[in-house]
Amino acid sequence: MMTNRKVPMDESNPILLQINNRWHIVEHSRRSERALCGVRVTHRGAHARLSLVGKRNVCGKCLELFKAMENA
Ligand SMILES: [Zn+2]
Q1: Whole-prediction pTM value?
Q2: Which residues hold their Cβ within 5 A of ligand 1, which is an ion?
Q3: What is the maximal distance between C-alpha atoms in the chain?
Q4: 7, 45, 47, 60: which has the fewest C-beta neighbours closer than 10 Å?
């Protein structure tokens, strides 16, 4: 039986996926079907961490939602 264990995100350094030439934040690099902002993950392209890419290169909506999650 599958357990639905919640794996906490790395709070200050989330995983990013490159979608349509933009970096978006995802909860799970392999399992998420959508980025936080709702953009569909169309293919498993490049992965990176926020610390590597830098906030200025990341989708603003994802960053906003990520911040909201941190403060929840
Ligand atoms: Zn996004």
Answers
A1: 0.79
A2: 24, 35, 37, 59, 62
A3: 42
A4: 7
